[in-house]
């Protein structure tokens, strides 16, 4: 009040500063309410409760820094060679916890944050990214993802209950291998059917993509961001992996 009277600051400036401070307090209280509601619903242990409070109390900048470190480890930091190709994927994998989250969003954020700190999961996502990027020339249009292409090809067979190691599955498997063989061959060459994802092998790539932690991250991300749940790749990848393993052992 003294500063206002002495005209060091204006009354609107003081009001604006107080309004911003109250807004921060409101967001904090809303987040605490969501955490406590989630704890009550889950029957969390004291250790889980402390973890939830610790991760939920992170500021927006701290949350972005934590997720940024995970995305940097998986796709390279902005400015790194090849990182530009993953700019869209980075955006699509970034959680945005709302100011007034629901308890399930807080729970999802806490689990997602813990998963993003897992060194094994970071290494897995790095392998997936490296395989995806291999064979793509700098500045080229990103190539289609093999896992998504596989899902398109085998979805009818999965729905029809076709046994992946049966003779009936052979045309489907051949179509998958033929389509994936065109993804990233060396210049002027055609990649062999058993080595079709950036020189790393379709089998190994699909096994990495099919890791349950990857799908769990995407499902948690959808909850945090209020998106519809993503379609699972697991049925199509499980089917294809069984089919490919059978061919390898023949």
Summarize the structure.
The chain has about 250 residues and is mostly helical.
List the helices and strands and how they pair.
Elements: H1 2-5, H2 11-42, H3 46-56, H4 60-75, H5 87-92, H6 103-116, H7 119-133, H8 146-160, H9 170-180, H10 202-209, H11 212-225, H12 234-249
Explain what this protein looks like in three dimensions.
This protein is mostly helical and 250 residues long. The chain has one domain (58-249). Helices cover 65% and strands 0% of the residues. It contains 12 helices and no strands. It has helices at 2-5, 11-42, 46-56, 60-75, 87-92, 103-116, 119-133, 146-160, 170-180, 202-209, 212-225, 234-249. Helix 2 crosses helix 6 and helix 3 crosses helix 6. The longest helix has 32 residues, at 11-42. It is elongated. The relative contact order is 0.10.
Main β-sheet: number of strands, strand sense, barrel status? none
First and last CA, distance: 85 Å
Number of domains: 1
CA gyration radius, whole angstroms = 24 Å
As residue ranges, the low-confidence spans are 185-200
Number of helices: 12
Helix content: 55-70%
Give the tally of β-strands: 0
State which percent range the strand residues make up: under 5%
